[in-house]
Amino acid sequence: MNGAIWIAVVAAVSFLIYLFIRNKVTFFSCFGYGLLLTEIVLIFISRKQPLDWNCQYFIILLLLICLGGRGCKYLNPETRMLYYTGMVISLLSTVSVAFLTNLEFLSIMGYLILGALVSFVSLGQMAVCNRRSNEGVGFIVAILALFIFHRAMIVCGYANEAGIKLTIDLENVIRAGPAKGIVTSLQKCNEVKGTLSDWQRFVNEDSILVVVPWMSDPIVYVDQNTKVSTFSTINTPTYNESLLYYWDMYPEKIPTIIAVEGWNGEISVDKNTWIMRWVEDTYTVHEDGEFWRFYRKE
């Protein structure tokens, strides 16, 4: 809804500007550069305000597809086939993600990217046929600049855990382990460094491991050459009785060590959860690292 309101307001203001200076600017050029300007402003507003602008720009993909549909009739048969192929693949991918995942609506819209790209072909041809090539080029350049600026400025990943939203606020780079080279917060760099140290001290290569944080980062499973004990390593695992059924079916997967996220002996996982009650009832011995507690059987 926020994205739709953003586009509607920019379109209305762009039309008013176009009415006053129609001899100097076209509506679509004004609209495109209006979206780019407001995107820049909103990104920097989100830096200090509780405004989630990470995925709002995906609404533009739907806008491009709608606009591109108007120019389909101007395409020759070969180019029209390219347009239809890209659009069908994009739409089917989006529908598949909608049915098979629990992603939010805006994240699902990101899979319209191929449809938006082939829409540029349609928009460009429509502008040429209507003798408005400058208008089409201006709009396309503005939208491409918007996407490039957004992806260059917005942080999606490790640094979000520390409240960092923009790349200009990133603090350090991970220098060891599988995540080496990722730019993030100083806090996350220290966590990765401490996790590597904990794994080297407490986890053997022949261990059968299950990791129990509140939100799992599956990359920790490759910090050592261990066997994975769970049936899933996605970042939102389900820790319930289904694990017991899984281990009954595959006894070779029963964990020999369980790593629970914490800080110098203070675990961060709720002790009233099923997994923590089961761990503390089953694994009686534990050792504390810097960022993890490691449970073992006697």
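Next protein, fold it too.
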Amino acid sequence: MTHSVVHLLGVPFAIIAGTGAGVFALLSWGIFRDSPFGTAIALLSVGMVALTIYHTMLLVLEPESLALHVLRSAANTILAIFVGLLILRHRQLRSGRSRGEGAWPD
């Protein structure tokens, strides 16, 4: 498989951009670990790492390999769990606020 120069320059760019995003996600998780969204941010960090590896492998390997299908499925599953956790947490916060549990003091 032949690659153009732009295609080959995309590999280090994908690695650098994905690594930066993953580091910022981990730093955010360190700050918000004890918050209601700490688990969701941790899953988002793992999802970002999986998507970075997937896109880097997509540039290097052929697009229809089994490893890429498995990695894409894992990344999509992580993102689906992330969205589900956000929905559950939103409902918990909303029900707690309607009962007066999470309201700000006057």
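About the second fold: The chain has a mean pLDDT of 76.
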